[in-house]
Amino acid sequence: MAAPRTTVWELEPHTRAKHDILRRYLRAWIPILTQEGGFPNILYIDGFAGPGRYAGGEDGSPIIAVKSALEHKARIKSNILFLFVEKEKDRAAVLRKCLTELPIPRNFQIEIAADKKFAEAFEELKQFFLAKTRKLPPTFAFIDPFGWTGAPFDIVRFILSQSNCEIFVTFMYEEINRFLSHSDQPENFDQFFGTSEWRKGISLAPRNSRDRFLHDIYLRQLKKAADAKYVRSFRMQNESNITDYYLFYASNNLLGLKRMKEAMWRVDESGEFTFSDATDPNQLVLFSKDPRYDLLEKELRDHFHRRKVSVSEIEEFVLTATPFRETHYKRVLKTLENSEPPALQVIKAPEGRKRGTFPSPSIMLRFS
Q: Closest Cα partner for 342 from 327, 359, 355, 328?
């Protein structure tokens, strides 16, 4: 999608799905930190906020974020700082008007950085917190540019270096691919990727080769340069089955990964796009109401063949190394145990356990 020239614009199907993921995730992330974690302060950053409203009246990402906190069933007592960065003054004005229509409680602080680029606004915020507390509060940063400029990898790396902080980045592959060999862009791409390795992709002619190459560089940067423990990528394809963009989620919190994957799997498919996990090209799985349990079964049997493992080990493997959710593997285990002959042996099952159920994470299993 090219950057719009108008103050507000139409909501595209891909963006609707992306916002649905964001909404579902924030509804889980906010109570995890404010109630379960008990953090007194949390920070939400929208680096490319937009006007807050689309031409059809739909909520933009800043309004989605605030409403996710307002509509939580239990009153949130922690302080939440929302930083919305919008360089265009006319869009920032519309966003400000949208926010005045919401009942903002006293513990919600909203800052709109108008007429500023994301990097500039973030640097000011960073210096404020470093001077005050020497670190960022628990943070979720939504970095959603129309292209690649203005979203330097140094910011991503810094956010992920802070405890309880995570990022959700839109990687605009179609735009990046179009300008990859443009003579005035090398410095911008160096900043975006945090490395010059992307330059090797210029010589890759087949579309799929360049697609995967650039995707893998950013994925590797998140894991190695930014030291993110958990990284997932999700591919949005257009009606021609061509990659439009990727969504990258990075965190050091396993519960955060669990909730993000839940949000992904709960997004309804509109029929106008293909939405799939793209982290591992050998595990490509489309998000749908009917998971490919046969693929998950193969993953489990291949990985744990003849091994003695606990249910908790299986759950962590499914969460961190496959596209599937933790709710999916129990159905596979049940099928394997009930097959004839059984393809799964339960070692020292707890007394009273019903066959095909796995109530304790410490239950030991062996795949045959």
A: 355
